[in-house]
Every structure is written in C-alpha cells, then in structure tokens.
Specification:
116 residues; alpha+beta
Length: 116
C-alpha cells in the first residue's frame, strides 16, 4: 500500500500503537493528546518524515472504510476503534529480524566488524 491509496474514512494504526482516521489530506489521531499530521509528512511507503518522533507516526496497518451511523451516534461511537475500522487492508512487513553475529556473518558470506 502507498500513501496515494489512503482515502477518507480509512483507519491507520501507527508504530506508536495508536490509531488515526484519514480525513482528506490529514491523518487525525483518535487517541487523546496525539493531534494529527498532514499526509505530506509521510513518504510514499507510509513512513513519517518529520525529524522528531520519526517512527512514532509510521503507519503499520491500514483498515478500510466501514458503513457507520451518522450524526451524534457516530460521534459517540468514534471513541470505540473497533466500531469504526473495517477490514484489514494492509500490514507492514518491515518487522526487525533478530539475528546473532554468527547468523549475520553467515547471511553475508563473510566476517564483519561492527564500528561506531
């Protein structure tokens, strides 16, 4: 999935563990005290590009739109994330792989030296 695939009504889960709702060209956090960010702050592969808290806003899951109630009922239900998110459309597979030094050397086919 890329940034251009994001549409109003989709729900995203972020690296920081919170959820947001896509509204136009913005990603608005549904959890208290997180605010929101414009979509231009994301790379095409959904990584956040701001200097501070860089990976905190990275998008790791995207859920489709869901048919919902309208008006005041919708505002009451929006606090319940399970109510508003639809089916999982995409999940980031960039999870870090744990490896020993021996496994790294074997994978690279040569010895390595870690430098600082």
């Amino acid at each position: 999935m890329t940034k251009s695939d994001l549409k109003t009504g989709m729900v995203c889960k972020h690296m920081g563990g919170f959820h947001s709702l896509i509204l136009g060209n913005a990603c608005v956090a549904l959890d208290a005290n997180k605010g929101g960010v414009p979509l231009y702050n994301f790379t095409k592969d959904l990584h956040y590009i701001h200097k501070e808290n860089q990976s905190f806003w990275d998008i790791v899951e995207v859920y489709g739109e869901r048919e919902q109630a309208s008006g005041s009922d919708m505002m009451f239900k929006i606090a319940n994330i399970e109510y508003i998110k639809g089916d999982l459309l995409w999940k980031c597979e960039d999870e870090p792989v744990e490896m020993t030094m021996e496994e790294i050397c074997k994978a690279l086919g040569k010895n390595i030296k870690i430098i600082k």
